[in-house]
Automatic annotation (TrEMBL):
Entry protein name: 2-polyprenyl-6-methoxyphenol hydroxylase-like FAD-dependent oxidoreductase
Species assigned in the record: Actinocorallia herbida
The FAD-binding domain, residue ranges: 2-333
Cofactor section: FAD
Keywords from the named record: FAD, Flavoprotein
Gene Ontology molecular function: FAD binding; oxidoreductase activity, acting on paired donors, with incorporation or reduction of molecular oxygen, NAD(P)H as one donor, and incorporation of one atom of oxygen
Length: 475
């Protein structure tokens, strides 16, 4: 029997596969498409996702093919300088087109032993107390202990589960694509700047090869949202907004997206779970979509691996929904606000100006930047100091640095006291003694996702927290 089947081979499914394979879980990724689309909806990683990649030893691969960027705010078309005092050793994002992100994660997943089957579409599922029977479009049947739907906003897995997806449908639509343009770059830049004085959903950005990534408001919302727009639609809307179609031709890909905002009522039904766009969809304002999905996988992977391995404490897998559902709800709220700010009417325009002034205040800029980048995410672990439930930034240690010790996806006890121990959990938790470590407490217990699960210096106080997150000790 397969341990985990992942439906969907995009960034979320591939990240989850990498996390599971760190724990030797047998993973099969089923991807409906026979080849990657090449479409680049996600344009990069925010600071928290940068940390995630560093925690797993992947950041160097991204930096080798990407440019760093450092933007604060980035809220509803408002851009501010990166604020001082952000609690991270990675105060930057990386501009990585989605196809590159997928390629890098697929390479890593294959290195770790993931089995990826392309051209395989899930059309049915039946689960029982021991596993999930998955039916494919070609009639093949597979059985696994768990199934995770990472198959996008129109998730087949979610629909087969009968999980509700409440929210709001699209009221506006934007055309997006990559294409060549014959008009000179200076004229295109001037026209874009003029339109963006009033319409921030309009843009045309060239890459190093002169290919333009173009976004333009559509004329209403298409009845068939799955149908790709035509080049003629792009030209017509460009002329309507800019008075010229820039001489666009030879499109690489064309797509459309709306402002639909929805969230799954449940992230888990028995042995079937949802992650990424299968669990939540929202407008791309703020560039959070790919990032929140990758972070879903980062939260879920070690917990699901613990269930497969048999050491998971009771309720551990349920903490995935308990922790990630509120995070997504906050992102949906944020993108609703941003779409309002992008409006062209006098009210949204005035509100955008007011918020822009407020974001000149350092504390406001820090708050909004932390919200967009997910650096301010705090899971509810009960009573304790403010840093409890937050991820710990990378810190230097006597030998290397913290994130270099998290590459294998295990728990980590970082100890300045010298009198603590993880005896009984050494198969799941590493112990590092460093009296010089820059910690918010004498010692901290980190989960495999880097969030602080306990802080203190009392061995008797530590033990129940080891048990809570890492199960019963070995004898």
């Amino acid at each position: 029997m397969i341990d985990v089947i992942i439906a969907g081979g995009g960034p979320v499914g591939l990240m989850l596969a990498c996390e599971l394979r760190l724990h030797e879980v047998r993973v099969v990724v089923l991807e409906r498409l026979t080849e990657p689309t090449g479409q680049s909806r996600g344009q990069g990683l925010h600071a928290r996702s940068v940390e995630v990649m560093d925690q797993r030893g992947l950041l160097g691969r991204f930096l080798a093919v990407s440019e760093k960027f450092q933007v604060g705010g980035l809220f509803g078309g408002i851009i501010k300088p990166w604020p001082d005092g952000m609690d991270t050793a990675h105060p930057f994002g990386v501009a990585t087109p989605q196809p590159v992100t997928e390629r890098l994660l697929e390479e890593r997943a294959l290195e770790l032993g993931t089995e990826i089957r392309r051209g395989r579409e899930v059309v049915g599922l039946v689960q029982d107390a021991d596993g999930v029977d998955v039916e494919l479009a070609d009639g093949t049947r597979l059985r696994s202990r768990y199934l995770v739907g990472c198959d996008g906003g129109r998730s087949t897995v979610r629909k087969l589960l009968g999980v509700g997806f409440p929210g709001e449908p699209s009221t506006v639509e934007t055309l997006l694509g990559e294409m060549e343009a014959t008009e000179d770059p200076e004229s295109i830049a001037a026209a874009v700047a003029k339109v963006r004085e009033t319409q921030l959903r309009f843009g045309a950005t060239p890459d190093a090869n002169g290919i333009y990534r173009i976004g333009v408001p559509a004329d209403g919302v298409a009845e068939d949202r799955t149908a790709e727009p035509t080049l003629e639609e792009f030209k017509r809307q460009l002329r309507a907004w800019a008075g010229t179609d820039f001489g666009v031709h030879s499109p690489r890909w064309l797509s459309r997206f709306g402002d639909a905002t929805r969230q799954a009522e449940r992230y888990r039904v028995g042995r079937v779970l949802l992650a990424g766009d299968a669990a939540h969809v929202h407008p791309p304002t703020g560039g959070q979509g790919l990032n929140i999905g990758v972070q879903d996988a980062f939260n879920l992977g070690w917990k699901l691996a613990a269930e497969v391995a048999g050491w998971a404490p009771e309720g551990l897998l349920d903490t995935y929904e308990a922790e990630r559902h509120p995070v997504a709800a906050a992102v949906l709220s944020s993108t609703r606000a941003q779409m309002t700010l992008l409006g062209t009417e006098p009210g949204p325009t005035a509100l955008r100006g007011l918020l822009s002034d407020l974001m000149d205040l350092p504390e406001v800029n820090r708050h909004i930047t932390g919200m967009i980048t997910a650096l301010n995410v705090r899971y509810d672990f009960g009573e304790g100091p403010d840093f409890l439930g937050r991820r710990l930034r990378d810190v230097p240690l006597k030998h290397g640095r913290l994130y270099e010790l998290t590459r294998h996806g295990r728990g980590l006890l970082v100890d300045r006291t010298g009198h603590l121990s993880a005896t009984g959990w050494t198969d799941r938790v590493d112990h590092v003694l460093d009296p010089t470590a820059d910690l918010p407490a004498p010692a901290v217990l980190l989960r495999p996702d880097g969030h602080i699960a306990w802080a203190g210096e009392d061995r008797q106080d530590l033990v129940p927290h080891l048990t809570r997150w890492f199960g019963a000790p070995t004898t």
